[in-house]
Amino acid sequence: PHVEPVRFSEDERGWLVLDVRQVVRDRTGSVVVDQMIQHAYRVERGLIRRMEIRPVAATIKATAPKLTPA
C-alpha cells in the first residue's frame, strides 16, 4: 500500500492522529482500494509507545467485483 498524509491532529486522549489516504494496487497496477484511514500514535517522553490503524467513516473509493442480480 501507498499512504499519503492529508492532515494531523490530537484526539481527546492526547494521541497524535494522522488522516492518510491509502491506495492499494494489485500486481497489474489496477487500484484495488483507495480510502482514507487514520494512523494514531501515543507518544510518551518523546518516544512512540503505541501505534494504531483506525478506519475512517468517509471512504473515497473502493473497487471490488460488482455483483449483478441473476
Comma- or semicolon-separated keywords:
disordered C terminus, five-stranded antiparallel β-sheet, 70 residues, elongated, mainly beta
Outline:
This protein is mainly β and 70 residues long. The chain has strands at residues 2-10, 16-25, 31-44, 47-55, 61-62. Strands 1, 2, 3, 4 and 5 form a five-stranded antiparallel β-sheet that branches.
The largest β sheet comes out as: 5 strands, antiparallel
Task: Determine the oligomeric state from the structure.
Answer: single chain
What's the helix-strand series? EEEEE
Q: Class by helix and strand content?
A: mainly beta
**Given the structure, what is the number of helices?**
0
Measured as a percent range, the helix fraction is under 10%
Shape: elongated
Question: Total number of β-strand segments?
Answer: 5
Question: What does this protein structure show overall?
Answer:
The protein has 70 residues and is an all-beta fold. The protein has no helices and five strands.
Helices, strands, pairings?
Layout: E1 2-10, E2 16-25, E3 31-44, E4 47-55, E5 61-62
Antiparallel strand pairs: 1-2, 2-3, 3-4, 3-5
